[in-house]
Amino acid sequence: MPMKHVILLIVLCLPAWGCDTYPKDPRNTLKTATGGTLRVGYSENPPWVIKTDSVPTGIEANLVKAFAATLKAQVAWHNDTEQNLFEDLEKQKLHLVIAGITDNNPWKKKVGLTRPFVETGEKKHVMAAIQGENAFIVRLERFLHEHEQAINARVQP
Amino acid sequence: MKQLKRFEFPEELRPDFERARRLEWITIAYLISTAITVYLTMGNSQAMKTAWFEDLLSLTPSVSFLIASRIFMKSPNKNFPYGYHRVVSIAYLCSALALFSIGAFLVIDSATTLVKAEHATIGTVVLFGYPIWLGYLMIAAMLWGTFPAMILGQKKLPLAKKLHEKNLYTDAKMNKADWMTAAAAIFGILGIGMGWWWADAVAALVIAVDIVHDGYINLKQAIFDLMDEIPKTVDNQTTDPLLDSIKSKLAGFAWIKDFRIRLREEGHIYLGEGFIVPNQEENLTLLIENAASEIQSLDWRIQEFVIMPVRILPED
């Protein structure tokens, strides 16, 4: 491929950079959830996720509620074991899994982990989304970044 | 034991050889810098990990060139009567194998990504307090992998032909492989941004086929050179026209009735023998000596040409 063509193609792709809808999701997770339902799987792991009689609470559960509100989405909660949640996430039955998981989770090759949103000692905490749903993950990571200070305040004693 | 003369490039080619060495040092520094850039931006991306692995492997030709260049000029001695030229062919084999491996690895890697339908996850990274899409950073890192590699490769090609340096030629091909995979990765990442999860793997697969092709041709030639195939040109693996010049030179001597020659390549240089049926016995030793030195002066690459007088030509 001559250099001219490379430059030409890069220039042609440039308009996509400024776009709001870039990157996009291959499976439209963000579109489906926005104004619709965000399907979230959770497994108890205090203080991150705490099971109650109704909806879960805890640091991560509260973050998900606030995130869903920015998308004007209802949250459909599913409680299960971590193993079952990750299997469902891999099959795209869920949009998001929270269970106080960290970035060295062995499922990281099959799901899409977010960038760590808080560190406690050696542990880097993340949430798990569907693999390759980049628009959704980018939106979620931006949300978590905006709340970084509030999260830190809750974690540090 | 009769040893070869000590080999050095002819006076007019020495500056070219020095330029080639400088280019290879620049290549090493450059490849290390791209490996670091890619490492810093790779995140969880499998495609970027592949690019990183490839950067490390693509150091092989330049490193082997520099190692070989410290060895091949050593004087022949009683343990190495033919000198150290073959080290160039060995370096060529290493480089060609590295090029072929990169191609083969890329084919397998991108094919499995497609078959398994692995969707690349590219999230954000915080830069100056603001989270931006890591894909943009990867593209920037990959741009550093294209243009300098392109220029380095272009500069090496003419030198490789002049110096009869097949290893340098393979390194130019390696630079081509480098910039093409980097360009493919850019399109792949842009494609992923468009929601086309397969874009990265497809782009890599297309480029990989080309790399396998270059790798295969050079790997084959490197093996054939070590198996004493007749000398082939650097750029397109055709029989060196120098063989015809030798034949027409010998045919021009009135005292030679018939002859057969054979040549082989040892790195930069050629060694060979000519079996001749002389027309006359008178002055034969002197005639042979003169003929041999005339042939050796045809080209710097003909390092030693031995002429053997026979009554009947050996069977082919």
Structure description:
The complex is a heterodimer of chains A (157) and B (316). Chain A has 157 residues and is an alpha/beta fold. Chain A has a single domain, classed as Periplasmic binding protein-like II (D-Maltodextrin-Binding Protein, domain 2, 3-Layer(aba) Sandwich). Chain A has helices at residues 3-13, 15-18, 29-33, 59-70, 82-90, 134-146, 148-155; strands at 37-42, 74-79, 96-98, 112-113, 118-120, 123-125, 128-129. The longest helix of chain A has 13 residues, at 134-146. The model of chain B has no long low-confidence stretch (mean pLDDT 91). By secondary structure, chain B is mainly alpha-helical. Chain B folds into 2 domains: 11-226, Cation efflux protein transmembrane domain (Alpha-lytic protease prodomain-like, Up-down Bundle), CATH 1.20.1510; 242-309, Cation efflux protein, cytoplasmic domain (Alpha-Beta Plaits). In chain B, helix 4 (86-116) packs parallel to helix 7 and helix 5 (134-144) packs antiparallel against helix 7 (166-193). Classes of the chains: A alpha/beta (157), B mainly alpha (316). Chains A and B meet through helix 1, strand 4 and helix 6 of A and strand 1 and helix 7 of B.
